[in-house]
Structures are given as structure tokens and as C-alpha cells.
Amino acid sequence: IKCMPKPHIYSKGVHYLLSDPSSPSSSPVLSCSSGIQADDDLKSMFVGTVMRKIKSRTWKKQRYFRLQEDCMTIWYKSKKGWTTSVFENSEVLQSLGSTLIKHTCLYIADEFPPDRCFTLVFRGRRGNLDLVAESAGEAQSWIKGIRKLIDNLENMGQREKLDQWICDWFKKADKNRDGQMNFKEVQDLLKMMNVDMNEHHALRLFTTADKSQSGTLEDDEFVLFYKMLTQREDVLRVFQEYSGDGQKLTLQDLKDFLREEQLREDGVQQYALKLIERYEPSDTARMLQVMTFDGFLMYLTSPEGSIFNPTMVELYQDMTQPLCHYFISSSHNTYLLEDQIRGHSSVEGYIRALKRGCRCVEVDCWDGPNEEPIVYHGHTFTSKIFFKDVVTVLGNYAFKASQYPVILSIENHCSVEQQKVMAQHLTQILGDKLLKTPLHGKFPIGLPSPEDLKGKILLKGKKIGGLEDSMNGVVDDSLMGEKSKQSLSKELSDCVVYCKSVHFSSFKHSQIHSKFYEISSFTESKARKHIREAGAEFVLHNARQLSRVYPSGLRTDSSNFNPQDMWNAGCQIVALNFQTAGVEMDLNDGLFCQNGHCGYVLKPAFMRNIDERFDPENPQNGGYKPLSLSIQVISGQQLPKVNIKEGSIIDPLVRVEIHGVPLDQAKQETRYIDNNGFNPVWYDTLQFTIHVPELALVRFVVEDYDKTSKNDFVGQFTLPFTCIQPGYRHIHLLSKDGTSIPPSSLFVHVRITKLT
């Protein structure tokens, strides 16, 4: 499916649906490919449908929904007029659709047939869109249509995203919707695009692009204007440095560039030919095995030209090590969408976390009405959801993003009777997915690996006796869980295999008495104290068994602690509030964006070997050789506006932060550029020394400089130091919620060298 409005499709006299969606003259113009025009589901979405939008028990109102011609936006009519809902970075759910409405809106479960209900789930902090169609057929048509469009969006290349971006700007600037742009509209467009350009220069570009001399820009004229506006002098400089004639790169020129700048060592000729074949738009150039400037720019803005090594985006690590040898993406109080006191509890929290690759989720269980356990933050005003609904969502979503095991961490406050109900729900709903006995029916000598546990859900909680007792059948129902005043039901206890929760006494006690299947939880402050006082012992402890660290109870606003401190000590389950955007979640996303986004990252060898002694507070004692990191921040491209005030243009600066062991923590900034968020140029070089590269994360942050108040956040990108590609690279920026904001990027030159 190709659903891409190209600039050349907009011709004089075409009416946009965006001009007035209710106007009869604005009949749906299928500005997508013929494949879309032939699709019945999408055609019905273009025509539009009346559906019920559900917000609460009492708020269930009919709205008219229609897919717009950009194939990325749904508009719906309300009393306020026409409102937009963009479904990039979203997913449509059904049977899930129906179940989800039942989960999120328990009060309407019996009011509408399940086959008419579906939900649009957005990434980030944006609330879901719960809808009820007039018929099951209409619901299916929208579900199938939206899934096709989301698949198309996810498969867009950089060039297509750029075309889409150009197209969007054209529509925003074409105020009178006549398919043309006069000079006043172009001036307004430049302000919207973060460009501060004097009128004379803007008029010169406009006149040059106006080939028809009509006083307006249409179709290809606007594309030409955009190309002149976005001319990449910075990339051209690099191109001409290696081009013999300034017009093309011969195969030898390209090989020289790849060896000398990108530090490519193996198979250079074959790789150069592959780049020409993949990115060179000219048939003649491809035939002659040369690369034009357009092809060179396409390569540098592609995933292969990204700062993130594409081979490390895929699953590349050994997944057969014991579970305790991995960092595990983990969520705290997963059911909460907001704060810890009055926040809304919802199964949406589990869906969002699991879709982000989270592999350890948490439930706080309490006795509920009618013998049904409920989940909420105890002794607070947070809303309540049923435990069985959480388990249902877990069963449906646990392995959508990753096949590797999910740990369900249970804070159990239920009576023995309702614990039996919990065990019943876990067993009946999850079935074979729930691990209830050791693998292969044998008593293990150590933790199994993520590979061994593929497709399995592990329960973390209190257990009666040990794993040995369970396998020998010596446990009876009257026993109490060790170190706990709470009675445990045998049924729930039996669901705990490899993750038995125990109280932590000391590292010495653990070394002598602890079993490999036991796991202790630490508040962030206790964990920091242990790291300060006995960092090396903590690392060794975590080489043998699992540890979980969770936020302080004082973080009622759902803020997060810095997870890097805990990873430095080898703590595997570092639980964060996934609903709260910020540097802490950027680091979490940065660490786990490697290795296929599978939620597991193999710890460095020196943290897995019990014969080594690594102290994160004093890494230099281990004989590690530091590296020098040099980053030249060259330029930025099409940075988003942060201030919606008309005419405001950002003053961008770039800060590079190193997060790692204390010795490596550092940050440096470029100078700020006045009034240019469109194509700022710095050529500023920042230098860092990295002592433990295996633990370091590098975060690039763009901010809007303000001399009188705190700088505004513009965009960021975080990645592991070990995943950096050297040379000339683009960094594709992400929003505060971690979603992409194409085509916003930075262009940098990276060099990593050994310090002697």
C-alpha cells in the first residue's frame, strides 16, 4: 500500500478536504495511489462514518469521523468544529478493541456489543481514543483500514517522509486553499518553518522558483523552492572534498570516503557498490557505478548514514546467558497513567509499556468486591481496575514487541482467599504462557536464559519454602512465607518459580545463604547507599542473582530517578514510571533501543564474571583503557518549533551528555544560533574521555536558548556508546515522548580514538 501525497498532485483548483470537511464541494479526492483507491475499507473511511466517542461513564457522544486525504489524519466534527487525530505512532485494537473498552471503560461493558468497539492507542502520554461503530461491519472496516495505513507509515523511507513533510507544509501555507502560494503565503510559511530570512533573499528564491512567472508557486515550483531553501552546503562541502570533478563520486572516490571518514575496513568495494545501487537516484550514474550529490545525501540521511550502527538495531547479542546477566527493561506501578496519589489506573499502562519492549511489569493487588482482586496504589485515591483484566491484557500483549520472557512483579496485599482467585486467573487466562514449574521438570543449578524462556511469563513474588521444597512436594498449605507476616496461598505460591522475593540482609549474608532464584528489591536510596559503600560487592551480587530497584515513595508526581546509577552496579530490573517523559526515560529507551528492542541487553563481561572485581565508583582500578570521543556538531535540519506564538523562531543549541560511571559523567554545549531552527550551522567540536565505554550512554539534546529563563526542550536522541558509528552521521531527533519528529535531525562528525 502506498498512501503518500506527493507535492505534484496538488494542482490549481483542487479543493482540499482540510478547507471545510463538511462542504459538499469537498468530495474525497483520493490523493493516494491507485492501490488505495481500490481498497473498500479506505474508501469507506474517506466517505466518513458516525461513531460514538467514549470518554467516561456519562460521556458517550456521537461524532462524525472521516479519513483525510493525507492518509495520516482522522478529522471528527464536534461542537467546537473539526478536530484532528493523527494516528502516526499508534495502534488500533479490537477483539482487543472490544475487550479494551471493557478494560478501560468498565462501566459500559454491557452497553455495546464487543464487535462494534475498537480503540486507537497512541504512543507517548496521549490518551487513547475509544470508539463504538454503528455496526460490526463498520468497526471491522475502520480497524482493517487504519492497520493498513499504520503499516504504510511504518514502512516509509526517509525520502517519503520528507515528501510527506513538504506536502504538509504546503497545505499549512496555502491559506486560501487554491493550490497555489503567493509571496505573502511563502513569507508566512518561512516563519512557520522556523526560518528567519530577510525579505530580499526570500523574494529572490521565490522569483527563481516561479518558472511560469505567474506570481505564485504551484506543483513542481514549490518543490524547487523547497530544494533551494534546504540546500545542504555542509554536505556539499564533504562531497566536493572527495569528488575529483565536484559533480560525482567515482567508485574509488566513494571507497576513499568510506575508509577515511566512515572508518569502514572490510568489504569496502562491495559496500560502496551496494550504497550506489540503493541510494543513487540516477539510472545513468548507477550504470556507471558513480554517486551524484543527491545519492550521497540520500545515503547520509538513511539508516546506514545514521549515528546508530544498524547492525546493532537488530538482535545481535548472545541470549543464552543466565537471566541475571542482562539488563531488563522494567516498569514501576505499570497500571498508573499519571501521578501516584490521584492518578488514573488503566490497562492502557500495560499495553503501552509492553509495546515499548518492557519485560517486567508491576501490579499492586488488593482485596476487591465480589471476591475479585483489584489493582491500584493502596491507601491513595488512584482509581481501581480488576486483576483479571490486567492478566488478560498481559496474555494478549506480552509478546507483541518481543518474544523474550515477561516478569510479572506482584505486590500482594490480598487475603488468602483472593490470592487463590489470583492464581486461578493467572492459570486459566495465561495457560501455557505462565511458567509454573522449572524447565524440563528438573531442578536447575542456575537461572535459565532469555532464550530458554521465550514466550513465558514469570511471576515474581513471595513463595512458601524453596524451589527444592516445591519439587519434592513437601510444602503444605499452612506454611507461612519466610520473613513475612502475611499468609500465602499455596496456589499463588506455586506460580512463583525463578523469582522468589526475599528480604535483603547484607551482601555477605547473600553470598553464603542466597539461592540463585531469589530476588531482592531496593528503594533507590538504599541502592545508592550500597553502591557508595560496597559497589564491587553489589556488582558481584548481581552477577549471581536478580535485583530490582524502584522509585522512592516520595515521588508522588511519578518522577523518576536516574537509572544509570543502578545499571552501573549491574542491577537488572530498574523499574521506572514509563508514563513520565524526561531524561530518565530517554536513557531507558536509549539503552534498550539496541538488540532488536527485545527488552534485554547483555551486561558487560566484567559484570558477569564472578572472578572479576569491578567497582563503578573506582573503575580505573580495573586497568581499563579510556577512549577519547570527539563530536563535531555541524548543523541541524528543520528543528520543530517549541513556542506556538506567531513569528517566534528558536535559537537552538546542542548539548551532548555522557551518562555512565561517575568518572564519565559529563556534558558540553555548542553556542546558540540566533533565530534559525530550519538550518542552523555550528561546526563546534566537543571532546570527552570515556573510561568505561561498555556502560556509557550518549544523549544529544537540542534546546531553544533563553537568556532570561530555562531553555525549552526541542528534541533529543540517546544511544549506547558502543552502538555509535564513526564518521559523518545524521542523528534523527525524537520528541519528549520518544516518538520520531521527521525530518528533524543533526549532522555531526564523530571520531573515537584510544588514549595512550
Kindly summarize this structure in a few lines.
The chain is built from 23 helices and 28 strands. With 756 residues, the protein is of the alpha+beta class.
Arithmetic mean pLDDT: 85
Strand content: 15-25%
- Spans where pLDDT lies below 50 across 5 or more residues: 1-35, 92-107
Spatial sequence of strands, sheet with the most strands: 13-12-11-14-15-16-17-18-19-10-20
> What is the global morphology?
globular
Number of strands: 28
* Rg for CA atoms: 28 Å
Contiguous helical run count: 23
Largest sheet: 11 strands, mixed
Briefly note the structural class of the backbone.
alpha+beta
Helix content: 25-40%
Distance between the termini: 54 Å
InterPro entries: C2_dom, C2_domain_sf, EF-hand-dom_pair, EF_Hand_1_Ca_BS, EF_hand_dom, PH-like_dom_sf, PH_domain, PI-PLC_fam
Membrane topology: Peripheral membrane protein
Organism: Cyprinus carpio carpio
Glycosylation sites: 212
Word description of this protein:
This protein has 756 residues and is α+β, with helices and mostly antiparallel strands. Helices cover 30% and strands 22% of the residues. The protein is built from 23 helices and 28 strands. The strands form 5 sheets. The chain has an 11-stranded mixed beta sheet. Strand 17 (518-523), helix 20 (524-544) and strand 18 form a beta-alpha-beta unit. Helix 2 crosses helix 4, helix 7 packs across helix 8 and helix 11 crosses helix 13 (293-300). The model is unreliable at 1-35 and 92-107 (pLDDT under 50).
